[in-house]
Amino acid sequence: MHTLKSKLPNVGTTIFSVMSKMAAEHNAINLSQGFPNFPVNEELIKSYHDVIDGQFHQYMPMPGYGPLSLEVTQKIALHYGRHVNSENELLITAGATQAIFTTIQALVHSGDEVIVLDPSYDCYAPAVELCAGIPVHVNLTSNFSVDWDKVQDAITSKTRLLIINNPHNPSGSVFSLEDIQALETILDQHPHVLLLSDEVYEYIHFDAPHISANSREKLIDKTIIVSSFGKTFHVTGWKIGYLVAPKGIMDEIKKVHQFNVFSVNSTAQATLAKYLPQADLAKLSGFYKQKRDLFRNLISESKFELLDCKGSYFQVARYNEISSLNDVDFSIEMTRKHGVAVIPISVFNKDQHDDKLIRFCFAKDDDTLIKAAEKLCRI
Q: Does the CA dihedral 162-168-169-171 come out positive or negative?
C-alpha cells in the first residue's frame, strides 16, 4: 500500500463538525456551530424565487456578476465612504473561507511568515502551511485585547501578512480606535507587511462601533478585506462572500481564484444583486443586540460568568465555578449530560491554553435560546 505523506499532519476534523455531530447524536440544543436557525428575510426568498425562474443557471464572470459587484461598491460607499472600483478592486468569492484561502495562496511564498492572533478562526494557519509559509501565533490578552507590542516584536524581515478578525470570533471583541491607530503605526513602520482583515461580522456590533479597514486611508493600499453575505443575510449555506483589495494585490488574488473556483454560484449572485438595494444593513446590529441581551438575561442567574460581547453573534462564558474539567471535556459533558452543545475556546489557540472558557452562538430563534437557557440554569 502506498504511504501518503500528509500536507497537514496536525489537522483533523474541525471542532465545529465534531460538536454539531455530537449535538445531533445526543439530541442537544446546538449553540456550537455559528449558523442561524431562524427564517431568512422574506424579500430575499422572493428574490431567490424570481431568479430561479429566470436565466441565471450558467457560469458567471470569473470576478463576479457585474450588477452584484456594483451594488456591493454602493454599500461600501454608503457605510464606509470608500469608493471601490468594481472591476479592479472587488472579487465575489465562494464564501469568506475561500476568500481567505485564495488570498493566502496568492500572497504567501515558501518561508514567508504570517502573524495570526490567537484565539483565531481555524482556517488561517492551515492555509499558510499549505503554501509552505510559517504561521507565527501571537496570543491575545486574557480579556481578548491585542498587545500591540507583542505584534511588533513578532514582525521580522520574513513577515508577509498580518491577519486580524474584527469583530472577533470567538471572543466577540471589537477593535477600538486606539487599536486601529496602533495597527496603522506598525504597518507604517513595516511597509513589507500586508494586512488581511477578516470582517465577516462587520454589521454585527453593539456597544462599540466597528471600524472597518475600508474607512482608513492609511490601510486601504495595503489591506485585503474579507466580507460575508452568508453572515450578513443569515444564508451561511449559500457560501458566498467578497474581497476588497487594491488592484495590484487583487490581480494576484484573481490568478489563484480562477483556478480555485473560477466563478461563484450564479443564482446566489443574481439574487443578492436583486436584493441588496432594499437591504438595510444598519438594522442588523439592533436585531442581534436583542438576541444577545435576551440570552444574557436568561442565563444571568446561572453559574456561568459572561464576558463582554461587543460584536459577532457569539457569547463567551467562564465555567470555573461549575467544573474543573478542561474546556474540551466540559464541552463534551455539556452536550452529553446537559443537552446544550458549545465550543471550547482552547481549540482556537495554537498552544491550546485553557482558561476555562466556552462559546455560545446566540444566532438562534428566541424559543431555542429560552430552552437552552433553562438547561444552562439547571447546571
A: positive
CA atoms of 155 and 6, how far apart (whole Å): 29
- Asked if 93 and 72 touch (Cβ cutoff 8 Å), the reply is no
Residue 9 lies in a domain: no
User: 361 and 349 in one domain?
Assistant: yes
Helices (DSSP H) in 201-300: which residue ranges? 217-220, 229-232, 247-260, 266-275, 284-298
Half-sphere exposure of 366 (CA within 13 A, CB side): 6
Query: At which of 230, 257, 278 does a domain end?
Result: 278
For residue 29, CA distances in Å to 235, 249, 371 come to: 20, 43, 8
Local confidence band at 369 (pLDDT 50, 70, 90 cut-offs): very high
**pLDDT at position 182:** 98
Supply the pTM of this predicted model. Answer: 0.95
Instruction: Verify that 200 and 54 share a domain, yes or no.
Output: yes
Domain identity same for 202 and 304: no
Looking at residue 205, the DSSP 8-state letter turns out to be B
Grid coordinates representing 39 are 427564517
**CA-angle at 292, arms to 287 and 295, nearest 5°:** 125
**pLDDT tens-digit map of 40-63:** 999 999 999 999 998 899 999 999
Q: Which residues of 294-311 are buried (b: 16+ CB within 10 A; e: fewer)?
A: ebbebbeebebeebbbbb
**Domain range for 300:** 15-39+282-377
Peptide bond into 119 cis (omega under 30): yes
22, pLDDT greater than 90: no
Q: Quick one: pLDDT at residue 24? A: 83
**Whether residue 245 is found in the same domain as residue 291:** no
List all residues 6 or more positions away from 301 whose beta carbon is below 8 Å from its beta carbon. Answer: 377
pLDDT at 1: 63
Question: 93 - beta bridge partners?
Answer: 241
* Same-domain check for residues 105 and 205: yes
Is the same domain home to 35 and 50? no
Q: Could you tell me how many residues make up the chain? A: 379
